[in-house]
Each structure stands twice: as structure tokens, then as C-alpha cells.
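Worked example 3. Consider a protein that binds coenzyme A.
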Amino acid sequence: MKMCDEAGAMAAMRYTQTSVVTVAVDSMSFLSPVHIGDMLTVTAEVTWVGRTSIETRITVTAEEVMSGKVSHTNTAYIVYVALSRDGRPATVPPLLCETEEDLARHQRAEARRALRLKMKESSG
Ligand SMILES: CC(C)(COP(=O)(O)OP(=O)(O)OC[C@H]1O[C@@H](n2cnc3c(N)ncnc32)[C@H](O)[C@@H]1OP(=O)(O)O)[C@@H](O)C(=O)NCCC(=O)NCCS
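Given these inputs, the predicted complex is written out as C-alpha cells:
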């Protein structure tokens, strides 16, 4: 989970070129076990941006190095907020949607965001 947060933060920081802070972590399911000696690969990409927030998708795979068998361990969505030098939320550049798949992905991200904000509201 720590590696996921670090990878997501790197993707968000690379995108915004500011520091970021983690604001929300979606539920994380572990689909298959990771054994001692497995090689983990953690990849992160920016999937959506708002005014100051950035959603990232993090994918983890584990490779059994002797056999080369790769399994998908988990996928997580983590949201960050870009910070200005004085530590306040900073506006981020818009994410361009160029293809129909980009638009569909954007809509799925909007639905996840609506759910997160609803959960935040009901827990606060
Ligand atoms: C993150 C933080 C700076 C935001 O400050 P804030 O005054 O709440 O700012 P806002 O209410 O304007 O929220 C900023 C953005 O975060 C989004 N956000 C806030 N809570 C959210 C949640 N639970 N899920 C998804 N997005 C959320 C808002 O929708 C807004 O997005 P937008 O600008 O893209 O529309 C502040 O809440 C904070 O410092 N939290 C603690 C962070 C922390 O300690 N993290 C752990 C260690 S890294």
C-alpha cells in the first residue's frame, strides 16, 4: 500500500510539477498473493484531474522470477491534491480527452469521484 501511494504521488507530481498530498484512497483488493522473492512492478498513471485534485490508477504485478509467471496483484485508485509553495490547494492543468476511450475513461472517473465525495459527506 505504501508503494502504491508513493507511485501514485510520483505520477501526480510529474503531472502537476508541484508537491502533492494524498486526499483519498479507494478500497484496495488483493487479487493474488505476493511471495517472498517475487519481483513487484508498480505502475501509476493520471486518470482524471479536477481543479486541484488528481486521480491516479496504480497497478501492481508480481513476477515469480524463476518461472517468469506474472500475476496481477491489485489495482488501486488514489487521489492527491496539488499544493502551492505556501501549502494551499493549487490549480492543475486540464487533462486532455482526445479519443472516445479518453472520454469514456473520464466519465468513469467522474462516477468514482462522485462516490468518493458522497462517502466523504456521509462520514463527515
Ligand atoms: C488535501 C487538503 C490540502 C485539501 O484541502 P481543502 O481545504 O479540503 O481543499 P478543498 O475542499 O478545496 O479540496 C481540494 C480538492 O480535493 C478534493 N477532495 C477533498 N476530499 C476528497 C475526497 N475524500 N475524495 C476525493 N476528492 C476529495 C476536492 O473535491 C477538491 O477537488 P477539486 O479542486 O479538484 O475540485 C486538506 O484536506 C489536507 O491537508 N488534508 C490532509 C492530507 C494528508 O495529511 N494526507 C496524508 C499524508 S500525505
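Take a moment to read the result before moving on. The chain has a mean pLDDT of 95. Residues 2-94 form a domain with the Thiol Ester Dehydrase; Chain A fold (CATH 3.10.129.10).
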